[in-house]
Amino acid sequence: MPSFTCSTSDLAPLLSSSTTANSTAAAAYLCSQFTTIANQLSDTSYAVNNTYFLFSAYLVFAMQLGFAMLCAGSVRAKNTMNIMLTNVLDAAVGGLSYYLFGYAFAFGSPSNGFIGRHFFGLNDFPYPLADYSFFLYQWAFAIAAAGITSGSIAERTQFVAYLIYSSFLTGFVYPIVSHWVWSSDGWASASRSNNDLLLGSGAIDFSGSGVVHMVGGIAGLWGALIEGPRIGRFDREGRSVALRGHSASLVVLGTFLLWFGWYGFNPGSFLTILKSYGGSGEYYGQWSAIGRTAVTTTLAGCTAALTTLFSKRLLAGHWNVIDVCNGLLGGFVAITSGCSVVEPWAAIICGFVAAWVLIGCNKLAEKFKYDDPLEAAQLDGGCGAWGLLFTGLFATNKYVNEVFPGKPGRPYGLFMGGGGKLLAAQIIQILVIIGWVTGTMGPLFYGLNKMRLLRISSEDEIAGMDLTSHGGFAYVYSDHDDPLIKSVPGLVMRRVEPDYESSHYQN
Predict the structure, then answer these.
(1) Quick count: other Cβ atoms within 10 Å of Cβ 402?
(2) Residue ranges of the Ammonium transporter AmtB-like domain (predicted)?
(3) Tens digits of per-residue pLDDT, 367-425?
């Protein structure tokens, strides 16, 4: 908002009055009214920006529901309750761990370039640079990373392992990476406060292709590698055996909910909406950039979905809605890094390549006998890395300077004439994220495995975790199928079916 000032000494000479005293009093009155209006406009701007920000946080949190539905549909029916419970606990455990430690490690400014050191338990909060809406938004991002990991290790992981890794990921591993890239003190941040940017550019990861999706995907990769594939995923000759999820309907529902939530994930990362890029009163401002970001997000996802549809038709010989949903999400993951700094036509290229990256990663996973029920490591890790590279190639000069102002001559996309420094910074971010997550989550999963806290027994896996760990199946098709009712004498209602054999002889 513009800054309003009013001075009695300035107004007094301009007022025609018989006495100096009356003129001064009139000027004081006008200034008081003008100050009241200015304060109300300032309050309104804060309210509008915080309302927009809170709504974006609610959208991102709604993605938890989408991911829960996606996970539920992608696993077999006998593990539905288990995967749903882990999604709930990702949010609950993540809420406490991010409140106690995570936010401070991520945004506890002033701090060094590696880790924050203020606001533990939101002490001395809010402050002029951040309000509670900012905390809520960042928490929603943190639990999204934990949810990605839960999908990779679904259907064979002990419940206690979920609690341990989720707390560690949301309270320490993820916040450190977000500090590097998103905090004004972070060593790789494109908005570093002292303007000492990595390669003169900083790494541009606007909404988290690397910070959120790569972190969750690489963590899931190590969890799934250490505990091994599900029983029956590969036969004795090493050939891949599809263990299909039990509900394509839930997968589609989850995909659409994630699509809806992504409009808070990407456009919401602007943090504010009332900001002019030129003179006041012009039609073009940050509100326009937010709309453009929603458009690039949409185009990348749609292109990836269609590319996957026809590509899988050629490769597999059929139209597969599950593959299309995963391709769509892969496009969203990829565009998340550069959504605010690329043209809409470039988003189409992003989505097209993302679809092939996902297909290629899935082929590699089969070759190396890697089992990920939701393709989370391939989708979020592979497409997230491509998204960072894409930003280094296609970020435009105009949009980079709008989103990250204050440094004229900042490098931008290689293919847009901005040189290779931004691309180099993006590659550094990819390598550092892989190294950091590998060095933290890898030993954690390895230790849990050594202590026999990671994988469930073969008997429990075959029977299904819902029955062995959660008291019964998520779905009861009839009383006869429910083991809890079956154990109570007199409550079993047998199904009556036609006797086809008797009918045949009677005829």
Answers:
(1) 18
(2) 53-475
(3) 999 999 999 999 999 999 999 999 999 999 999 999 998 888 899 999 999 999 999 99
- Could you give phi then psi for residue 113, rounded to 5 degrees? -75, -15
Asked whether the beta carbons of 259 and 330 are under 8 A apart, the reply is no
CA distance 217 to 302: 22
The one-letter amino acid code at 219 reads: A
Inter-residue long-range contacts of 430-433, CB under 8 Å, 24+ positions, other chains counted? 430/210, 430/214, 430/385, 430/388, 430/389, 432/180, 432/188, 433/177, 433/210, 433/211, 433/214, 433/215, 433/218
Which range, 82-96, 268-282, 459-473, has the best average confidence (pLDDT)? 82-96
Which of 51-65, 268-282, 362-376, 493-507 comes out lowest in average pLDDT?
493-507
Question: Considering the entire predicted model, what is its pTM?
Answer: 0.88
Are the CB atoms for 309 and 331 separated by under 8 Å? no
Torsion sign over Cα 293, 282, 409, 272: negative
User: Which of 445, 437, 392, 444 minimizes the C-alpha distance to 206?
Assistant: 392
Alpha-carbon dihedral 20, 25, 30, 31, rounded to 10 degrees: 90
Taking 80 as the threshold, does the pLDDT of residue 39 lie above it? no
- C-alpha–C-alpha distance, residues 319 and 313, integer Å: 6
Q: How far apart are CA 11 and CA 488, in angstroms?
A: 89
Q: Where are the beta strands (DSSP E) in 202-322?
A: none
Tell me which residue has tokens 């709309």: 291
Q: Cα-atom radius of gyration of the chain, to the nearest Å?
A: 27
Count how many residues are written for the chain. 507
Cis peptide bond upstream of 110, omega within 30:
yes
pLDDT tens track for 131-176: 999 999 999 999 999 999 999 999 999 989 999 999 999 999 999 9
